[in-house]
Write a structure and sequence with these properties.
Layout lengths: L6 H10 L4 E5 L6 H6 L4 E4 L3 H9 L11 E4 L6 H11 L7 E5 L16 E4 L15 E2 H6 L13 H10 L3 H4 L3 H22 L7 H13 L7 H8 L9 H13 L30 H8 L3 H6 L13 H18 L5 E6 L6 E7 L5 E6 L11 H10 L3 E8 L5 E2 L5 E4 L3 E2 L1
Parallel strand pairs: 1-4, 1-5, 2-3, 3-4, 6-13, 9-10, 10-12
Antiparallel strand pairs: 7-8, 8-9, 11-12
Helix pairs in contact: 6-12, 6-14, 8-12, 9-10, 9-12, 12-14
Length: about 425
């Protein structure tokens, strides 16, 4: 299979020329090893006992390896992190180490590596990386604040976006179709429950409870439902509920596996928005995992029906999963711009904006995600309200849709089909 260049490739090329050590982190299957190995002269795979053994015996063995060394699945032997950190302190040159990891280890390294090892997140493939259409609207330009002209036509239909939700952004899964793809995604989740938790030192005594909690989390995609609400949805009809400490352990371990990817509530630091709620919006790392947990296919999503726990959110499941797909893509595009992503919701729920992309100086681009081909004044009312509140601090406002055309409305709010938005 030909390698599909990723947004993070350009980040690595830029950073390796000036940094001695970079850790590429993310969930299993996102493509970390394939991407990092293209820049390595030697790869040490720590999930291979034959390659792990000499490193355990004497970490100085790494010193004999020339060029850029990739240490794959470094969390299998956490002391290697501290060894790399000390090597950086001793003055190794730029581009010396790449580390890839799919979990935060139970036994943390002695030192965080802050200032020595730069951590770079890698997520599943964004829409732009999937080759559906040539992006015509750059998030980077929107964040510059010049309010560029937007245009272009998207060939992707609503059914096409449904297919992308189900197809997954995991490169190895996207090559399969039909039942083979469903089995791959189901197997991915089964491994999480049956093996990955144990590898991180957490014994799952009742796998069905963890699976139910995951399904409830999936049903709450793009919502701010409380964890108590998730627990009730996961245990509906059951007299015995898992202890709160158990469900907290679920959440923490899934976070360490990079499988939960919540969007935090926005804290703008300005008093006139002091009534903001700060609960996170729930997202799994890939909406295909949510669809798999809920047992939905294209027909069910398009008809508005669903399976699994009752969705503790407003709107349709398809709308929530489409928002999750757009959120995944925007996170990939925002990372090279060093922009953070959050969401805005007032405590009373009267004002909400799906995504707030914020530069380091506090200037923002506000994004609404709409499962529609056309945009009305009602769809932009929260963006217009936020513009009045923020003034020049609002760099741009965008509605991301399933439509076919990119344009600016008379009020200068941009309307952009999801497939036309890129880095």
């Amino acid at each position: 299979m030909a390698y599909q260049r990723r947004v993070v490739d350009a980040e690595l090329d830029d950073l390796l020329s000036g940094l001695p050590a970079i850790a590429v982190e993310g969930a299993k299957g996102v493509g970390k090893t394939a991407t990092a190995s293209r820049r390595a002269h030697r790869m040490v795979q720590l999930d291979d006992p034959a390659q792990l053994a000499p490193l355990q015996a004497d970490p100085r063995w790494l010193d004999a390896l020339e060029g850029t060394v990739l240490i794959d699945e470094w969390q299998r032997h956490p002391p290697v992190w501290d060894y790399v950190r000390r090597a950086v302190d001793s003055g190794v040159g730029a581009g010396r180490f790449l580390l890839t990891g799919s979990a935060t280890p139970t036994t943390a390294p002695v030192h965080s590596g802050a200032g020595r090892i730069v951590q770079l997140r890698m997520r599943p493939m964004s829409l732009a990386e999937r080759g559906l259409a040539a992006p015509t609207v750059s998030l980077g330009q929107l964040l510059e604040g010049s309010r560029p002209d937007v245009g272009g036509e998207s060939p992707v239909t609503l059914e096409g976006y449904v297919e992308e939700i189900l197809a997954s952004g995991f490169p190895g899964v996207r090559t399969a179709t039909g039942r083979a793809r469903r089995l791959q995604l189901s197997g991915y989740l089964a491994r999480v429950v049956e093996r990955d938790f144990a590898e991180l030192g957490h014994t799952v005594r009742r796998p069905e409870s963890l699976r139910a909690w995951l399904a409830a989390y999936a049903a709450a995609t793009a919502s701010t439902s409380s964890y108590n609400t998730l627990l009730r949805a996961a245990t509906a009809g059951h007299g015995e509920k898992p202890a709160k400490t158990t469900t907290i352990a679920y959440r923490d371990t899934l976070t360490r596996l990079w499988l939960l990817d919540p969007v935090p509530g926005w804290v703008p630091g300005y008093g006139h928005l002091g009534r903001l709620g700060q609960a996170p919006k729930h997202h799994l790392v890939d909406p295909a995992l949510a669809a798999t947990l809920l047992g939905v296919d294209a027909g069910r999503l398009l008809s508005g029906s669903s399976a699994g726990p009752a969705g503790p959110r407003d709107g349709t499941l398809l709308g929530a999963l489409f928002e999750s797909l757009v959120t995944l893509s925007l996170r990939v595009y925002a990372q090279p711009q060093e922009a953070t992503i959050s969401h805005m919701r007032l405590h009373d729920g009267r004002r909400e904006v799906d995504l707030i992309l914020e530069r380091a100086d506090g200037a923002v681009v506000a994004v609404e995600v709409k499962l529609t081909g056309s945009v009305t004044d009602s769809d932009v009312r929260h963006l217009s309200w936020l513009k009045d509140k923020l003034g020049d601090r609002l760099l741009d406002a965008v509605v991301v849709t399933t439509g076919g055309h990119a344009y600016r409305r008379q009020d200068r709010i941009a309307v952009v089909p999801a497939a036309l938005l890129g880095p």
